[in-house]
Recover the amino acids of this structure.
């Protein structure tokens, strides 16, 4: 009885009691949600354009952040370090196309998936060899202080991060919808054969997509890195993107965005209001439980295309 | 009608093409040529190798033997992308449109190779990039008018009925302003009215733009009506090759078609 009360009644009373605090929790959730969206977006881009589930997306986040910090430690100013890191991610995209995708053209999805597991190890290893394995502080000069609006507490760093994330997502959406290159990317994502027949060069498209995914990884790496330090655990953020993808559908850009926000808010709210009942730290597994529920009841995700088995 | 157009030199020369998949010989030693401005039909029962022939011509398949010469240039392992660059556009037997994209966007993709601005500009939507985009848009609007599909410009093509999808696919191929247009069963599954429309479009394309066309079709009356010459394939072999009248009178063809179910 007491347990039922703690699950079904008390949290809602708390919310009603102090809506301002609830708003704060939700906003905090949205902030980390934007970051989840960003990582998930990297997955979706690559999955749509090359049909590859990129296991190495998390390693790309770490690698990009490590490159940035490494360049800054060598004395490069922030803007130069950003350029260098971006350049390295684009070079990585070329290398992936040249040495991985091109060799594996027309192979099964599972083979490509395994190739990205290999890529994951290469990136983790290379990152550590080049930059060591200590936790590195990353200071990108975003202000980190708090202010209040209508009784709700805001943090300027979180706000800036959310803003940058949102700007990035919007830019990508516009890029896809309006530019000739975006149209070509959508075409490839839709039908490889038809795209080839109108002369869209797949190889170029792959390089572009992996570069964009690299840039997205860099931004995500900077934001998480500036918050929690650049360290190996950045790779684990990619694991959080998995439930986001299950929620949003693997092929949907809006899905990745909304899915990320839902997971971000959901886990914060769950932690604050239901955490104590379950002995705390449910932030760690809440996303996966939610994803599991989705897999049972709506396997194609929120926005994914409905899967109809051909018989 | 066909006779009034002046048929030019050989545009495409197919010489001794063979290709097999595992044990199946899809094509064995097939030769024919296509002349500028003509309409050539490839006919034959199901599984005769018609689609395989088109796939060889546009570089999806690489024949194990034989050569294909396009515009006087022989080629061996040509990629699809290069075939498109040389001026070959096509439609598919099982419509291959970009289902999530609008009619307009689908046809715009056909302009891909006409885009002159480099990759960097193609990532933007202002300045010279926008100017070029609008020029291509104008061409595409003409095609849309020509095919009488103004009403569905903004509709995602996945939502369109089959006959209209086939028309959009033709539009996308036309957008490339090809010298050689390959049509794989452009009228399959259409009703009489839709077939008549499609016939008219094909003849108009051929007439107005002088586009050379190779098409696969099962409907004999259509084939005999619109084509200048006909290649008949059966079990991967060339059974007959000539004008519709010659082919119709050919005993092998009559034998092959008797009792063979076709659509
Ligand atoms: N990619 C492929 N892999 C394996 N076999 C193939 C492939 N493409 C064609 N074939 C085989 O080659 C033969 C000819 O096929 P093709 O599609 O060219 O016939 P078609 O004349 O177009 O028939 P339809 O009228 O049914 O479209 C068939 O036996 C087919 O199974
Ligand atoms: Mg066929």
């Amino acid at each position: 009885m007491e347990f039922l009360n703690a699950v079904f009644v008390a949290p809602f009373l708390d919310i009603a009691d102090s809506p301002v605090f609830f708003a704060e929790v939700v906003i905090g959730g949205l902030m980390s949600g934007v970051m989840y969206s960003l990582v998930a977006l990297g997955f979706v881009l690559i999955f749509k354009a090359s049909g590859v589930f990129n296991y190495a997306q998390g390693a790309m986040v770490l690698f990009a952040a490590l490159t940035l910090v490494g360049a800054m430690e060598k004395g490069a100013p922030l803007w130069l370090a950003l350029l260098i890191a971006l350049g390295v991610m684009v070079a990585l995209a070329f290398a992936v196309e040249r040495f991985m995708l091109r060799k594996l053209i027309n192979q099964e999805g599972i083979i490509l998936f395994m190739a990205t597991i290999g890529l994951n190890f290469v990136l983790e290893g290379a990152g550590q060899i080049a930059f060591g394995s200590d936790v590195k502080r990353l200071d990108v000069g975003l202000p980190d202080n708090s202010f209040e609006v209508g009784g709700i507490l805001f943090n300027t760093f979180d706000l800036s991060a959310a803003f940058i994330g949102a700007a990035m997502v919007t830019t990508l959406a516009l890029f896809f919808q309006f530019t000739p290159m975006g149209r070509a990317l959508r075409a490839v994502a839709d039908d490889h054969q038809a795209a080839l027949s109108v002369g869209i060069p797949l190889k170029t498209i792959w390089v572009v997509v992996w570069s964009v995914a690299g840039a997205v990884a860099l931004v995500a790496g900077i934001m998480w890195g500036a918050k929690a330090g650049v360290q190996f655990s950045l790779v684990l953020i990619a694991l959080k993107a998995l439930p986001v993808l299950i929620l949003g559908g693997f092929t949907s850009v809006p899905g990745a965005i909304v899915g990320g926000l839902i997971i971000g808010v959901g886990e914060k709210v769950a932690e604050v209001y239901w955490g104590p009942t379950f002995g705390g730290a449910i932030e760690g597994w809440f996303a996966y439980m939610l994803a599991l529920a989705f897999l049972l009841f709506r396997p194609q995700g929120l926005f994914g295309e409905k899967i109809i088995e051909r018989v | 009608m066909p006779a009034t157009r002046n048929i030019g030199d050989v545009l495409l020369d197919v010489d001794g093409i063979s290709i097999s998949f595992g044990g199946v010989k899809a094509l064995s030693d097939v030769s024919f040529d296509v002349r500028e401005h003509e309409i050539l039909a490839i006919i034959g029962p199901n599984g005769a190798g018609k689609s395989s022939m088109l796939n060889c011509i546009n570089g999806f398949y690489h024949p194990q033997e034989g050569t294909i010469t396009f515009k006087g240039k022989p080629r061996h392992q040509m990629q699809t992308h290069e075939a498109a660059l040389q001026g070959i556009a096509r439609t598919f037997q099982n419509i291959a449109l970009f289902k999530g994209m609008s009619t307009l966007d689908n046809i715009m993709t056909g302009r891909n190779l006409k885009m002159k601005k480099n990759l960097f500009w193609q990532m933007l939507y202002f300045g010279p990039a926008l100017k070029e985009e609008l020029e291509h848009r104008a061409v595409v609007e003409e095609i849309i008018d020509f095919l009488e599909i103004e009403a569905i410009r903004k509709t995602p093509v996945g939502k369109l009925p089959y006959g209209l999808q086939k028309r959009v696919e033709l539009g996308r191929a036309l957008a490339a302003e090809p010298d050689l247009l390959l049509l794989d069963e452009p009228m399959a599954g259409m009703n009489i009215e839709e077939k008549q429309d499609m016939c008219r479009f094909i003849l108009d394309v051929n007439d107005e733009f002088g586009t050379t066309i190779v098409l696969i079709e099962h409907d004999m009356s259509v084939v005999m009506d619109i084509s200048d010459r006909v290649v008949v394939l059966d079990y991967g072999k060339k059974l007959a090759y000539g004008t519709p009248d010659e082919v119709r009178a050919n005993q092998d063809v009559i034998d092959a078609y008797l009792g063979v179910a076709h659509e």
Summary: The interface with chain B takes residues 174-175, 178-184, 186-187, 190-191, 193-202, 204, 208 of chain A (CB under 8 Å).
